[in-house]
Amino acid sequence: MSEPPVSRGPAASDAGLTRSLLTGWGRTAATAARVLRPSTVEQVRDALQMVRAGGPAPSRGVAVRGLGRSYGDAAQSAGGTVVDLTGLDAVRDLQVREGDALLTCAAGASLHDLLRLLVPQGWFVPVTPGTRYVTVGGAIAADVHGKNHHRDGSFASHVESLSLLDGRGEAHLIGPQSDPEAFWATAGGMGLTGVIVEATLRLLPVQSSWMLVDTERAANLDDLLDRLSSRDHLYRYSVAWIDCLATGRSAGRGVITRGEHAPADALHGRATARAWAVPSGPLVSLPGPLPAGLLNRASVAAFNEAWFRKAPRHRAGELQPFPRFFHPLDGVGDWNAVYGRRGFLQYQFVVPIQREDTLREVLARLRGARVPSFLAVLKRFGPADPGPLSFPRPGWTLALDIPAGLPGLAGLLDECDLLVAEAGGAVYLAKDSRMRPELLSMMYPRLEEWKGTRDRLDPDRIFRTDLSRRLNL
Ligand SMILES: Cc1cc2nc3c(=O)[nH]c(=O)nc-3n(C[C@H](O)[C@H](O)[C@H](O)COP(=O)(O)OP(=O)(O)OC[C@H]3O[C@@H](n4cnc5c(N)ncnc54)[C@H](O)[C@@H]3O)c2cc1C
Fold first, then answer.
1. What spatial distance separates the first Cα and last Cα of the chain, rounded to whole Å?
2. pLDDT given for residue 314 in this prediction
3. Which atom of ligand 1 sits closest to the CA of residue 133?
4. How far is residue 67's CA from residue 65's CA, in Å, rounded to a whole number?
5. Residue 292 confidence (pLDDT)
């Protein structure tokens, strides 16, 4: 399958090792590594063997990389070897039986390519994050969630089995039944238990590529939380945009969008003729990093005001193409350049239901510090996923994009981390670029259990990333 026509950072070489500077999606803290882009499982095994045999910088280990959509330093390794899996993207098998379908594909296949293939055949991926430019391997390694977490759980909950090359280069076919310990240490394990080379996923049947969407405004945070708590269960997908800069009686106001896959008999107008339309790629691209300071408190406050006012107070049953509903930012290639040369970070945390006080406090502190964020998303998670390092747990998760380099930001977020950890919550590792290691075991209380399984799968710790070194994983 072809690669999506978006940049995923500096190019990796198709043959042999290339030295490249790599960052995550936030474009901060670039580090140089030798990058290898294998196109067969044998070549992945050779790369692991090369590092084990004392090839270039063995002590810096091997990091696995998909499409580089984690925001921070999870898929890079200063001075090490990075294995870019996007060359392994073949679809091996699609088995359909009695309303169910199982897809087996190489782990470097992107959700973008899979959706282009599957949707016209009446199938959808079971969980999609806010971008479809992620690989299946990256989606499992971060155990990603979508707008349907309250209903369907995380991505790995829909994986029947996966094929893993461990730290000794040995292959294991593991699943939630056959080896739950290894499977759930790998799901959410951020590439530190081995290289996922193939996976089999259960798919969701759909009757069109359209979504039926209900939109409503909420006047403030209480109203927003009430509306999400009382009606989320009526929809498969639900999410809210929140205006982080609104103050006074409007503090925490937002716009809720919820939806379902549109049944065939709900289509009308142009949707009927384009019932199975799929996106080809980004429609436009930014020319490069935009000037610093473009996103400041005034411009973001103006944007938020306009965005809130533009949303209908209440609208039901609007037909939307699925990319607009799930992946609104994917239409602009390299939109991360909007934050200029210093880049940005995403702060995403979860706090348990009943700890709305912490959510309120973190929002108040960010507002008080005049942090300009126009992309702030709130969601209510369903039951916890079984992975010791999986992020979702019952509660409220808030994700905000923040320009890097704001004065005082590091200290402010350290304080927020502490509030979150004390409330029994956690920061999401796939988004993190700055957290300190001390709070990790508070946020992920099963960390030692995970380390035990990791040590079984990678006894010599050849899998290392900048994130794993920063957080002592
Ligand atoms: C615009 C945007 C919206 C997003 N929305 C969401 C969201 O709604 N929900 C959510 O959960 N996440 C979301 N994310 C985060 C994203 O889904 C995850 O970071 C995902 O892991 C990225 O996949 P990738 O292929 O780009 O992996 P990379 O970023 O390249 O790698 C991520 C991690 O997976 C490991 N990894 C990658 N491939 C493999 C493999 N084959 N075997 C073993 N380990 C591997 C890497 O070592 C690394 O630790 C979003 C990101 C962006 C940019």
1. 34
2. 92
3. 26
4. 7
5. 64
For the packed helices 221-231 and 356-368, what is the interaxial angle rounded to 10 degrees?
140
Task: Count other C-beta atoms under 10 Å from residue 373's C-beta.
Answer: 23
pLDDT tens digits along 251-276:
999 999 999 999 999 999 999 999 99
Q: How are beta strands 376-381 and 123-124 bridged, if at all?
A: unpaired
The pTM score is 0.95
Supply the residue whose CA is at minimum distance from atom 44 of ligand 1.
191
Pocket of ligand 1 (CB under 6 A): 25, 63-70, 74-75, 85, 107, 129-131, 134-135, 137-139, 141-142, 144-146, 190-191, 195-196, 329, 430, 465
| Coil, strand or helix at 110 | strand
**CA 120, 282, 26 angle in degrees (round to 5)?**
120
Q: Residues 66-91: pLDDT tens digits?
A: 999 999 999 999 999 999 999 999 99
**pLDDT tens column, 414-440:** 999 999 999 999 999 999 999 999 999
Please report, for the chain, the start and end positions of each structural domain, with discontinuous segments joined by +.
210-441
Q: Cα–Cα distance between 259 and 25 in angstroms, integer?
A: 27
pLDDT, tens only, 364-387: 999 999 888 888 999 999 999 999
C-alpha to C-alpha distance for 28 and 356, rounded to whole angstroms: 31
Distance 158 CA to ligand 1 centre (A): 16
Distance (Å, whole) CA 397 – CA 225: 12
| CB-neighbour burial class of residue 298 (10 A; exposed 0-12, middle 13-18, buried 19+) | exposed
Determine the residue type at 118: L
* Residues ≥6 apart with Cβ < 8 Å to 194: 164, 165, 166, 167, 172, 186, 457, 458, 463
Contact between 260 and 236 under an 8 Å Cβ cutoff? The reply is yes
Cβ neighbourhood burial of 347 (10 Å; 0-12, 13-18, 19+) = buried
Residues present in the chain in total? 473
User: Ligand 1, closest atom to CA 155?
Assistant: 11
Its CATH class, for the domain covering 210-441, is: alpha beta
Question: pLDDT averaged over the chain?
Answer: 93
Ramachandran quadrant class, 114 (left: phi over 0; alpha: psi -120 to 50; beta: rest):
alpha
Asked whether the beta carbons of 143 and 183 are under 8 A apart, the reply is no
